[in-house]
Design goal:
With 138 residues, the protein is mainly alpha-helical. It contains six helices and two strands.
């Protein structure tokens, strides 16, 4: 599959770059991360914390898409957008976090402290890499 396939299916569309939305998403992502700084991971909080780290990461990827003029309506499409930018490792890690988040949100699965801690570390690393590579100056 390619990102273009998502455009053809109407799950993403090309438009004009939207700088104000980029800034808004960066602020929202930042706010999620600020909130998470004070949260302790335990068996009860693990799923919610993982979901919020994923959202902070997704908002960064969405901001990159909007900067390039793409409006994306599918979380899976973000994976292929990243692949088209030759960010294969980031795309795989993003998709793994997406699937883990989906298992919590859509299938009611529980995750462990260890999984949440791993997701936190991965999300923070990916956010840092993506911001440095694509969102400098914002």
């Amino acid at each position: 599959m390619r990102f273009q396939d998502f455009i053809e299916q109407g799950k993403a569309r090309k438009g004009s770059p939207d700088v104000s939305k980029v800034k808004s998403l960066l602020e929202t992502s930042n706010n999620h991360l600020l909130f998470l700084e004070n949260q302790k991971i335990n068996e009860v909080s693990a799923g919610s914390i993982l979901t919020t780290y994923y959202e902070a990461l997704r908002e960064i990827v969405e901001a990159i898409c909007l900067k390039e003029g793409f409006k994306v309506y599918s979380h899976e499409a973000f994976t292929y957008f990243l692949k088209e930018k030759n960010e294969d490792i980031i795309a795989i890690k993003f998709d793994n976090l997406r699937k883990l988040r989906n298992s919590i949100n859509y299938y009611g699965e529980k995750i462990s402290y260890k999984e949440a801690e791993y997701a936190k570390e991965e999300a923070l690393k990916l956010i840092r890499l993506l911001k440095n590579a694509y969102l400098k100056g914002f």
